[in-house]
Hints:
By secondary structure, the chain is α+β, with helices and mostly antiparallel strands. It has helices at residues 5-20, 25-35, 62-68, 72-78, 95-98, 101-106, 108-114, 150-173, 183-189, 208-216, 232-247, 303-311, 315-325, 330-337, 341-355, 360-370, and strands at residues 38-47, 51-58, 93-94, 119-129, 133-142, 194-197, 203-206, 220-223, 226-229, 258-262, 268-275, 289-294.
Amino acid sequence: MVIDPLRYSDLVGAIYDCALDPAHWAETLGRLCAVVDAATGIFSHVSRGPRSIPLVATGMSDDDLRGITDYDADVFALWGGPAAFTRPIDRPWVASRLASPEFFAANRYVREWAAPRDLVDCAAVVVSRSPELMGVIAMGRHRRFGLMDDRSIAALEMLTPHLQRAARITGLLDANGDALRNFEAVIGAILAPAFIVRQDLSIVFKNAAADALAARGDVLRAVHGRITAREPGLERALRRLLARISADETAVSGYELGLPVRTAAGQVCTLNLLPLAGGRARVAGEAVAAIFVSANALDHVPALDLLGPLFALTAAEQRVFELIVAGRKPREVAAQLGVALSTVRTHLLRIFEKTGVNRQAALIRLAHALAAPTAPARG
């Protein structure tokens, strides 16, 4: 691990605290900067204009903060201009690796704002993005530490999905939550369906939108006070995730906490899980997570990439799973992989056991239930 495990655990917890109370972003931003040896950090909303609206900053004076917005167009150019709204956001962007040395040195922001402050590089994590607006956390590297190195970039990449999940959930919670007294009141006031659950999927609390969702039954249902799913494999996936979150929330990939699913009508939504370890939300009843249902899908993580970790599939089982879902028969899978038919059948039996289904047709239905639209290629 590129970050000390205890430090990583504490930081992930702090990130999810920000999902419940945005006032924590200032302190958490400072801790993020420390992890990657950054001297400055800023969390901004950036429009195509381009225009930035700073939300939180660290390592910057008031004059710095006022002055940096004069360079919005130049900073936007470092990230590729309009291309920034289509570039994959599953990894941090690093200015020195995106822009040529000549372009970087000639950039007005670099020459007039960054260089006088001895900042030589910048990394950005896009935590949210719509067609016209991005939420960006940017961190400036001081000359004494040099350009962003592989270790720092790898550390940010590990934290990126957690930051994106926290930002997504903050959006789902809505600004109304700031004035409410406790977590259940916040959940009850938002428009997105939300459940607070124990490890066994029993429901501690659900809001009115979740009641309506459960009544429709096209994604999740509530039966005798417990969440069930239209597809048994989806319910099994949720149980596995909750067990892992309960054991160690930091051992779960941030991307696994956003599970894309298809409704009975074929629409795509995302189940966003917010770990509640350590009494984060101060809710009773041994709750381990809140599940928020958003009406859109993750735009950068292929759903099949999530299935291996969700069901603890081996690499060989994952490959067999993907080929079966693609419509191959076991004999065709064996021929394509260059293994014996008996080997494929053994893998299938293990996949059935792990996913909780017992037929190929059910396996394909499960994959379609968890499938998101085709994601942009990583690069």
